[in-house]
Amino acid sequence: MTAVGIYFNNIWLALSSIAIGMRITISHLFVKNVTTQYPDFKLKMPERARNRLYVNIDDCIGCDQCSMACPVDCITIETIKSTPDQDLGTTSTGQKKRLHVPVFDIDIAKCCYCGLCVPPCPTDCIVMTDVYEFSEFDRQNLIYNFSVMTSQDIEQARVKLKKAEEEAAAKKAASAAAAKAAAPPPAEKPAGPPQSQPPSTPTPDSSGQPGKS
Known about the structure:
Layout: H1 3-27, E1 53-55, H2 65-69, E2 75-81, E3 99-107, E4 126-128, E5 143-145, H3 151-182
Antiparallel strand pairs: 1-4, 2-3, 3-5
C-alpha cells in the first residue's frame, strides 16, 4: 500500500471508531435512565449481603469461637469466670451463661467481610448486617465496643472471682490437711536379728609378735 493509501486508511479507521463510539453513546439518549441518585436513593441490599458486623451481647457466652475463626484478628474478647453464687441468666437459645464478657471489641477497619466468624457462634449472637454506610474520619471510631459492663462492674467481678478462688484454695488445703491427719500412721518395720561382728584380728607389735586386740 502506498503512503497515500495508508494516510487515507488511517483517516477511515479514526472516523469509523468515532462513529461506533458515538452510536453507543447516542443510543443511550433514547432509553430510560437507570442511574441511582445516591444517597437520595439507595439500592436494596441482597439478603445475604456481608457488611458491618453486629453482636447481640445478651446472647454472648464468651466462648471466643468467632475470634479464633477470624483470619485478620479484628475481634478481641476478654472474659471473667462467674462465681457459683452468681446467676448470669441464659441466652435466647437456652444456654446458661457462665462467663462475664467485659471486652468484646471489633475493629471494623481490619474486617475483610469474609463471614467466617458467624457460623461457629453457638448462640447466633454475631451476624453480618446490610449496613454499609459507616465511614469515619477517625479510625478509632471504627472500633466497636459491644460490652455493656462498666468499669465498676468489671472490678467487682474480678474481686469476687479472686475471693472465690482464695476460699476454694483454702478449703482444698484444709481438706488435704484433715485427710493427712486422719490417715493411720505408717507401720514400723520389725527389728531384725542382731548382726554378728567378725572377730578382730590381732595386730603385731613392734617385736613382730601378735599383740592383744
